[in-house]
Amino acid sequence: MLSPFCRVSILSLDAGGILSLSTLIVLSRIENEIRKEIGSNDVKLIDCFDMICGTSAGGLISLMLLREVGLQEIMELVPNILEKAFEGSRNIISGILFEGYDINNVKDLFMKHIGSNFMASYKNIYCFVTATDVKHNPYKLFLLRNYTHKYNAINGESYEGINKVPLWLAAWATASAPTYLKGPSAQDIKKLGFNIKPEIHLVDGALKASNPSLIALEECARLNNKNLSSFIKEDLDTLVSIGTGKSPTKLTQSDFSGKSASTFEILINSTHLLSRANDTHRELLQWLSDRENTYFRFNVPNIGDINIDSQDVRDFDLIAKATRDYLFDEKYYEIKRLAHKLANNYIRSKYL
Fold first, then answer.
1. CB 90 within 8 A of CB 100
2. Confidence at residue 85, expressed as pLDDT on a 0 to 100 scale
3. Which residue range or ranges hold the PNPLA domain (predicted)?
């Protein structure tokens, strides 16, 4: 349970594939500004938050932050992971018929770089990553957490999920965008020795929550046994949400309820389920309209047309330049204001 004596700070990371390079540049800038404020390079960004969450590539970053991997190392690892995950050729036909890129290669990468420890073994911060359960109709949001709930949600949805899951499996689930990577099916999960009832088949969380910010608020409210409005009013200190300038893949949902949904069936079964990142942003603005200096959203323009599996160095350069220009031209003072607030919170938590 979150401390009743301290207000809660949340970091939320959108989906986006290779566009998550932008996310990492934003995170690095925030961390550097916090270190300047405090006067120490030993402080990690993660030390300033109570909960982190992410979807797809944002989920991979969240899981590495949970392991307390430094941002500089993550900035080196993520492009490497994505480059190797997206090795080989893929087009929409091969993606639909043959599940996209080689999943065995991806699983090995996640085991090596994300790790095999269970999420629940990390207690330093609350963390979840999103997935979509396509085993049932309608498809539903499924959370892979490092914590459990004592309470049901008050006037809201109690999202299903598990916490007895290794990091690499959580990474596989959250990052399995249909036509790119096959997600862990009920059979895959059984083969790994997990007996989950009712059975689940997990794919990319972006089908339901490409921007998991609102889910994070709902999760924190549930942990505190409060409704969402009361939690925001009484317990929320800071919500930092980082986008990737990209809307999720468009998909559609039928009455299919067979043993294991194929990529083709998932594709023809999901449009009305999709939660666009900017829709969530607008909803958050409504919830937090009377809370000044609480909600910080960073979402770089002019990078949304880059393919999430691009391996073109020119695209990497474009993402980096667009992000740095955005941070200095549009968000310079907002970054400073956020860093000042998080640094003060950190100092209070450590020394008061």
1. yes
2. 62
3. 11-217
Which residue carries 């709930």 as its tokens? Answer: 149
Contact 323, 329 (CB under 8 A): no
User: Is the CB of residue 129 less than 8 Å from the CB of residue 59?
Assistant: yes
Q: Please confirm, yes or no, whether 108 is among the known catalytic residues.
A: no
DSSP 87-122: -S---HHHHHHH-SS-HHHHHHHHHHHT-SSBGGG-
What pLDDT sits at residue 91? Answer: 42
Closest CA to 296 of 223, 241, 227: 241
Question: pLDDT value at position 295?
Answer: 96
**The dihedral sign for the CA sequence 35, 38, 41, 42:** negative
Bridge partners (DSSP) listed for residue 160: 142
pLDDT on residue 102 = 59
Helical packing angle, 71-85 and 20-38, nearest 10°: 170
- Specify the amino acid at residue 210: S
Q: Whole-prediction pTM value?
A: 0.88
Residue ranges in the chain modelled with pLDDT below 70: 1-5, 84-103, 179-180, 246-277, 309, 352
Question: Is 9 one of the annotated active-site residues of the chain?
Answer: no
CATH number of 8-351: 3.40.1090.10
> Domain limits of the chain?
8-351
Q: In 3-state terms, what secondary structure has residue 212?
A: coil
Q: 142 by DSSP, 3-state: which?
A: strand
Among candidate residues 12, 20, 56, 210, the one labeled active-site is 56
**Neighbour-count burial for 11-30, b at 16+ CB within 10 Å, e otherwise:** bbbbbbbbbbbbbbbbbbbb
Query: CA-CA distances (angstroms) from residue 112 to 39, 78, 137?
Result: 34, 12, 34
pLDDT at residue 43, rounded to an integer: 95
Please tell me which residue in 102, 133, 188, 204 is annotated as part of the active site: 204
Q: What pLDDT is recorded for position 315?
A: 87
